[in-house]
Amino acid sequence: MDFNQLLAVPGLAWLILAAVLAIAELLAPGIFLVFIAAGAAVTGVATLLVPAFDLVFEVFLFAAASAAAVAVGRRWYRQNPVPSADPLLNDRVARLIGQVVTVVEPIVAGQGRVKVGDGEWPAHGPDTPVGAHVRITGARSGSLDVEPA
């Protein structure tokens, strides 16, 4: 049986798709393709058991099984978070909290700008002149909350 004959059997085609997706997940891990691969595997097994399914039903079954696998996976990852050596890795603003920065546009009536690294951020806080140092205490709506250092 050559590859084209394998693909002619719908259940085997779905299982091959599941294997390809699982291998893609291993090569480029993103913790997502594995759930789609599970949906394809469920569809492949169901189609092997009941070969009379038409393509529309198979696609619907694939979508439903994949959605169910994603829902179960999301729930599992929410209940079992993966520990990280750097939990603030993807939260740039949280990494800024506590840093002392320089005011580059005076904070007047609660609004101004501060220099963070090589960029400038809008800032909210008490009136502060240019050149003064302030500490970042938080952030909201893309603006940093600051207080005198």
From TrEMBL:
It is a multi-pass membrane protein. It is found in: Membrane. Residues 94-148 form the NfeD-like C-terminal domain. InterPro entries: Membrane_assoc_protease, NA-bd_OB-fold, NfeD-like_C. GO terms for cellular component: plasma membrane. Keywords: Membrane, Transmembrane, Transmembrane helix. It comes from Sphingomonas kyeonggiensis. This is NfeD-like C-terminal domain-containing protein. Pfam families: NfeD (PF01957). The chain crosses the membrane at residues 6-24, 59-77.
